[in-house]
Amino acid sequence: MSQNEEVLSYPLPYDTALSAPTEWERLRAKCPVATIELPSGDHAKILTRHEHVKGLLSDPRFARPAAGDNAARVTREGSGGAVANGDMSMTIPDRGEGHQQWRRLVGKYFTAKRMAALRPGMTAIAERLIDDMVRSGAPADLKAGVGFPLPVYVICDMLGVPAEDRDRFSRWSDMMLSTSRYTREEAGQGMGEFVQYMSGHVAAKRATPTDDLIGMLIREGEEAGQGLTDAQLLSTAMGLLVAGHETTANMIGKMVAMLLVDRTRWERLLAEPSLVRTAVEESLRFDTNLGFGLRRYLTDDIEIEGQTLPTGTTVVCSMPAANRDESVFAGADDMDLGRSPNPHLTFGAGPHSCLGQALARTELQVVLETLLRKLPTLELAVSEQELQRVEGLLVGGLRQVPVRW
């Protein structure tokens, strides 16, 4: 690194919980490969242009950092959870054919057809949660009342684990995704409890296979003669439980907040409910508070914009910055509820793109459809300036989404 090179403190500053960092536009225009300092003090590179983020995420050579990679750390020693520090003992192959084989096996459960079959059950859950929130009276926290419990109920059902344990799952999930909220010791203890719980769950499914996701993986693996080991089933179940509820729970709250902060957006959807699908996609694109970004560890030298990034470099791909790239999205800073096509990168791209994106889309569409139908008078109970971001986790969200109706 040259002496004169600018180093930006990361995460970048923002004005309000829903606003984009002003730095994004400058970086895309003038410094598309910038140097950042992570909370650990380590340096990494950040990409902010759509073509660069998509290109790197689509490159099958590169994956998230593994424990032995000597990659830039997100947090300092003694803090952070397993995912933040890249030291979660994942037994699932993260690269190459092994990873693709795992994705093919697990992906059989996450088809659009299966998600469509789950839709009526999701709608019934959403209706019940909204009714409970209304009974409790306004103002209410939409994130706590609807955003958090719905994806937890759904993913618990898919994995065949009791939904009454959802508070424990939430705590374990936060610990795994922590960048500063928990110490290394606290996160380690939570991880141990989570492993013990899920190991018992996998063993029970081995003894009596069921029709849920874990049961399907056991059955299909045995039939194909190349099933997942207990350790791989454990990692799969834990990973899906965290990924399957944390990100969507936060996204439900952010989506509703974005649609209500300028209420003409909500009113347009009331007038044109057929826009729900494109409105969900636009909410995913428009979200500035997606989280830390996807890290990639370079196992080869690559060149971006005439700059060589050597082997061993850690690169943070900023999907939300790429999603505001004017060269791809006309009027990128406007929330266009009918935008189509919408090639946003919120679910990543390439061999590591989000396996559960059909599930997330279905949940977001169901919640939005049900809220529009049951609570057309919904509005934010606070100003945009009063909304606060979740801090100290790898995923972005709002602490609360106060609403009234």
Protein model, in words:
There is one protein chain. With 405 residues, the chain is α+β, with helices and mostly antiparallel strands. It has one domain: Cytochrome P450 (Cytochrome p450), CATH 1.10.630.10. The protein has helices at residues 23-30, 50-58, 82-85, 96-107, 112-136, 142-147, 149-159, 166-177, 184-207, 213-224, 230-261, 263-271, 276-286, 319-322, 357-374, and strands spanning 7-9, 33-37, 43-47, 140-141, 294-297, 302-304, 307-309, 314-317, 379-380, 402-404. A five-stranded mixed sheet has the order 1-2-3-8-5. Strands 4-10-9 form a three-stranded antiparallel sheet. Helix 7 (149-159) runs antiparallel to helix 11 (230-261), helix 8 (166-177) crosses helix 11 (230-261) and helix 13 crosses helix 15. The radius of gyration is 21 Å and the shape is globular.
